[in-house]
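Section 5: illustrative case.
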């Protein structure tokens, strides 16, 4: 049998094949239900290797490593006598499930050269690259992913799942307008496609179209299955848009109902979105967020003594620093220091100084934060994630410059950012630079832009109060 991509599926059960095909499309759009389809496919044909491999994929995505290893092992056990395409997919997913992502990457490249219509393998590659699993982490991993994606373009033109994957690869290398067009095309072809909706959000974020992004998420999210794991991350994007326009109350409400760990599964899946949003609130407003850091810190506790991806460790640092968990911080830094001393280049060059910088920032030692973060900044992509996710660490660097009164460095960073997109918050930071360096006329001009841009912002927020004080100071 063949799937809709013309690729072989080794099963004698038409029911199993149909269920597997349905599950694959749900997986490719990050919707709810693929695991259930793959499980039913296995019930219809227990010897269906591909269904076991794809079920393992869903377990990895759901942070269920034990189940992922078991399913991937079963897929390998059943791989004798099946097609090469299915064998290699089982092998790549098994490597991923067993923490051997670097070994999976070259296999995926070879696989897609031979089977360019196997879009699921492109999705696996995207996850491995963005999770920082490729080798010791490479600064230019977005270009690696972009080149791999473009290499199969001619065979997948018009395929909604490929176009969505291509959109992500484009905005991560700065081709934002092209990415938006692709994402909208994919979404038009498959309106329930959360992967495409995700890239629409990313594109508007990178363009500074915060009001447009807010409207898009407010319109599209209610049409998406709330049971889908991806609903949380898309709600995080919605909260970022609200925060960028100064709507703290709306962002708080989204966090409280759709994002915080007490609302969703209490595992590492909740860490990245929760920790980065809480840190942003604390950093932007200068006050403790109206939610518990402890519930975020509890899901970061595994990072204190267990090795893991740099992306996870970076967000664990935010949680530990934000919660002021001194014992956890000590254990975390001790574990990173030991790994660095044992020759782990990614931890030595990125994870450890990044963690130290974040912790110093939380403790009010901004000069030390700058000292630790500056060498990391040019190679920050090595931790993985998207640019939107890494921006919280860029913001920490920028805020450390401002608080350490290193205004020249802050201004250079701000001018680079503002050339790429409009940002009321960055313009507000520029006011702080201009005021700090005595350029009051420029500060007043910038303030006019900020007050106009944030005219609908929550007046009761601490950030609005700081803005009001700065207006009075500048005159």
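Designed sequence:
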């Amino acid at each position: 049998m063949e799937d809709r991509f013309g690729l072989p599926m080794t099963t004698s059960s038409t029911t199993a094949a149909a269920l597997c095909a349905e599950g694959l499309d749900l997986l490719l759009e990050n919707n709810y239900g693929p695991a259930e389809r793959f499980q039913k496919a296995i019930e219809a044909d227990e010897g269906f290797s591909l269904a076991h491999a794809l079920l393992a994929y869903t377990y990895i995505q759901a942070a269920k490593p034990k189940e992922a290893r078991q399913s991937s092992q079963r897929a390998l056990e059943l791989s004798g006598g099946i097609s090469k395409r299915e064998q290699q997919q089982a092998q790549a997913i098994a490597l991923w499930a067993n923490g051997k992502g670097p070994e999976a990457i070259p296999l995926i490249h070879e696989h897609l050269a031979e089977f360019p219509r196997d879009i699921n393998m492109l999705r696996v590659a995207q996850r491995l690259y963005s999770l920082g699993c490729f080798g010791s982490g490479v600064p230019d991993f977005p270009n690696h992913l972009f080149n791999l994606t473009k290499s199969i373009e001619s065979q997948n033109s018009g395929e909604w799942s490929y176009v969505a994957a291509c959109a992500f690869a484009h905005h991560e290398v700065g081709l934002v307008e092209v990415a938006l067009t692709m994402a909208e095309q994919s979404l038009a072809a498959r309106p329930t496609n959360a992967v495409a909706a995700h890239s629409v959000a990313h594109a508007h974020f990178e363009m500074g179209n915060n009001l447009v992004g807010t409207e898009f998420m407010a319109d599209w999210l209610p049409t998406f299955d709330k049971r889908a794991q991806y609903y949380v991350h898309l709600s995080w994007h919605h909260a970022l848009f609200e925060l960028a326009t100064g709507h703290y109350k709306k962002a708080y409400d989204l966090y409280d109902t759709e994002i915080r760990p007490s609302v969703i599964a209490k595992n590492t899946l909740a860490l990245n979105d929760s920790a980065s949003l809480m840190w942003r609130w604390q950093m932007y407003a200068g006050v403790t967020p109206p939610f518990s850091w402890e519930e975020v810190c509890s899901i970061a506790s595994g990072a204190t003594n267990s090795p893991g991806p740099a992306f996870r460790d970076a967000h664990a640092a935010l949680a530990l620093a934000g919660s002021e968990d001194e014992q956890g911080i000590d254990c975390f830094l001790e574990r990173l220091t030991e790994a660095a001393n044992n020759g782990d280049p990614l931890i030595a060059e990125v994870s450890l100084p990044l963690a130290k910088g974040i912790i110093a920032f939380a403790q009010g030692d901004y000069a030390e934060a700058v000292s630790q973060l500056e060498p990391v900044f040019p190679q920050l992509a090595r931790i993985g994630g998207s640019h939107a996710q890494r921006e919280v660490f860029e913001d920490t660097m920028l805020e450390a410059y401002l608080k350490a009164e290193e205004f020249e460095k802050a201004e250079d960073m701000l001018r680079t950012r503002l050339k790429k997109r409009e940002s009321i918050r960055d313009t507000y930071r520029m006011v702080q630079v201009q005021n700090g360096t005595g350029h009051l006329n420029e500060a007043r001009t910038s303030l006019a832009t900020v007050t106009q841009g944030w005219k609908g912002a929550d007046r009761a927020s601490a950030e609005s109060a700081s803005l009001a004080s700065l207006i009075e100071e500048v005159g």
